[in-house]
């Protein structure tokens, strides 16, 4: 007999908590297996599927929703992303664009590392004209061109109808206006929003 969701039962090695969850949009109890001892090895052996594939590996590819203290949280793996490499003013520039549930992450690098990291978001308000907030999280704080680049990208995200914020990483050798325009152009042409 399966206990109700979110309940616990007494087992041979102590209480077994059965958290509530949703797997492929069906409510299920997710058993907690002991990780050590003969009991755990036997149960893990029972969960083996065909050709030695464990159910744990199969479940990890599905959309899983756990009921936590803050409500339902969905996690889709892998994260949707685009990678591109281009030449901007003689510098090889690698760009990665990732779409998370609440943010877009854009990494543009000519130096092979993260560089300055900025956060940009649309301010919520009653004004007809949208306002945007851009702040430097890590790195050079005295580079207005990097802030302008983040602002251009968050405006494009907002105009496309998305309310997600942006985390932008710029590791650039050349921080000139043509370089930043090339990055903004490449990101907006290959956007995930």
From TrEMBL:
<dbReference type="Pfam" id="PF10178">
    <property type="entry name" value="PAC3"/>
</dbReference>
<dbReference type="GO" id="GO:0043248">
    <property type="term" value="P:proteasome assembly"/>
</dbReference>
<feature type="compositionally biased region" description="Polar residues">
    <location>
        <begin position="1"/>
        <end position="11"/>
    </location>
</feature>
<protein>
    <recommendedName>
        <fullName>Proteasome assembly chaperone 3</fullName>
    </recommendedName>
</protein>
<dbReference type="InterPro" id="IPR018788">
    <property type="entry name" value="Proteasome_assmbl_chp_3"/>
</dbReference>
<dbReference type="InterPro" id="IPR053720">
    <property type="entry name" value="Psm_Assembly_Chaperone"/>
</dbReference>
<feature type="region of interest" description="Disordered">
    <location>
        <begin position="1"/>
        <end position="23"/>
    </location>
</feature>
């Amino acid at each position: 007999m399966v206990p109700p969701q979110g309940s616990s039962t007494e087992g041979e090695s102590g209480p077994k908590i059965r958290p509530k969850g949703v797997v492929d949009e069906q409510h299920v109890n997710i058993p907690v297996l002991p990780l050590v001892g003969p009991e755990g090895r036997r149960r893990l052996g029972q969960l083996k599927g065909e050709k030695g594939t464990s159910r744990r590996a199969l479940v990890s590819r599905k959309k899983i929703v756990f009921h936590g203290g803050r409500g339902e949280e969905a996690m889709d793996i892998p994260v949707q992303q685009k990678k591109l490499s281009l030449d901007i003013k003689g510098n090889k520039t690698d760009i990665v664009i990732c779409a998370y549930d609440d943010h877009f992450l854009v990494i543009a690098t000519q130096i092979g590392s993260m560089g300055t990291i900025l956060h940009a978001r649309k301010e919520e308000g009653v004004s007809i004209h949208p306002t945007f907030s851009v702040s430097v999280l890590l790195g050079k704080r005295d580079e207005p061109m990097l802030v302008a680049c983040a602002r251009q990208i968050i405006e494009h995200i907002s105009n496309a109808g998305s309310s997600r914020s942006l985390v932008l990483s710029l590791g650039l050798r050349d921080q000139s206006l043509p370089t930043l325009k090339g990055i903004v152009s490449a990101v907006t042409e290959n956007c995930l929003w």
